[in-house]
């Protein structure tokens, strides 16, 4: 099965906003990223595929490891660029996919304001799922969805509207 995007154009700012709203509406970060990417790139997959990301929530099953938004983004990248045949570690397809995963992780670390990707580090000053913690996770969900959208659009030569990511300062993020 080939999971090529059918979208003729994507709005990266809207991807960021929709991923944030998906989190607010009840998905965890990883689920919201995957749902938003599938929707905006018009990928023909069952909606239930989002279940694959549910266990990655809160840094992989509440363990506080890799940020769930990054995990969801990595799954989305794998959907488009991953492999389903055993071709060993030198396979160019899997190495290209891993390169995109590294690009996402590195970009997120450089742009999230805390220079970390570990959920435990990103959230250590908060009470889980309350106030500022939730605002931050919603924001991180949008950031990761934006970057995945940027990578997918770039690699499939899909025209982009509103290409600029909205990076917020700490004050903007936690303002009411």
> What quaternary form is this?
single chain
Anisotropy-based shape: globular
Physical arrangement of strands within the biggest beta sheet: 1-2
Distance between the termini: 45 Å
Low-confidence stretches: none
- Quickly count the helices: 8
Provide the gyration radius in Å.
15 Å
What structural class do helix, strand and pairing data support? mainly alpha
Biggest sheet descriptor: 2 strands, parallel
State the domain count: 1
Mean pLDDT value: 87
Our estimate of the beta-strand percent is under 5%
- List the secondary-structure elements in sequence, H or E: EHHHHHHHEH
Q: How much helicity do the residues have?
A: 55-70%
Number of strands: 2
Task: Considering the chains and any ligands shown, give keywords for the structure.
single chain, 176 residues, mainly alpha, two-stranded parallel sheet, 8 helices, 2 strands
Write a structural description:
This protein is mainly alpha-helical and 176 residues long. It has one domain (10-169). Helix content is 56%, strand content 2%. The chain is built from 8 helices and 2 strands; from the N terminus they run E-H-H-H-H-H-H-H-E-H. It has helices spanning 12-24, 29-40, 57-60, 68-81, 92-111, 119-123, 131-155, 170-174; strands at 10-11, 160-161. Strands 1-2 form a two-stranded parallel ribbon. The radius of gyration is 15 Å and the shape is globular. The mean pLDDT is 87.
Give a brief rundown of this model.
This protein is an all-alpha fold and 176 residues long. The chain is built from 8 helices and 2 strands.
Q: Which helices and strands appear, and what pairs or packs with what?
A:
Blueprint: E1 10-11, H1 12-24, H2 29-40, H3 57-60, H4 68-81, H5 92-111, H6 119-123, H7 131-155, E2 160-161, H8 170-174
Parallel strand pairs: 1-2
Helix pairs in contact: 1-2, 1-7, 2-4, 2-7, 4-5, 4-7, 5-7
């Amino acid at each position: 099965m080939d999971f090529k995007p059918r979208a003729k154009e994507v709005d990266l700012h809207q991807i960021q906003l929709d991923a944030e709203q998906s989190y607010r509406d009840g998905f965890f970060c990883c689920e919201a990223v995957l749902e938003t990417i599938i929707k905006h790139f018009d990928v023909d997959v069952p909606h239930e595929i989002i279940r694959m990301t549910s266990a990655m929530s809160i840094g992989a099953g509440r363990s506080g490891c890799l940020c769930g938004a990054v995990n969801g983004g990595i799954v989305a990248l794998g959907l488009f660029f991953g492999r389903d045949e055993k071709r060993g570690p030198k396979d160019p397809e899997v190495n290209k996919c891993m390169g995109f995963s590294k690009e996402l992780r590195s970009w997120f670390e450089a742009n999230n304001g805390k220079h970390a990707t570990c959920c435990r580090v990103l959230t250590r000053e908060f009470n889980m799922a309350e106030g500022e913690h939730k605002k931050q996770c919603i924001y991180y969900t949008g950031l990761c969805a934006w970057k995945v959208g940027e990578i997918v659009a770039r690699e499939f030569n899909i025209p982009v509207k509103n290409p600029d990511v909205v990076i917020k300062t700490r004050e903007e993020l936690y303002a009411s």
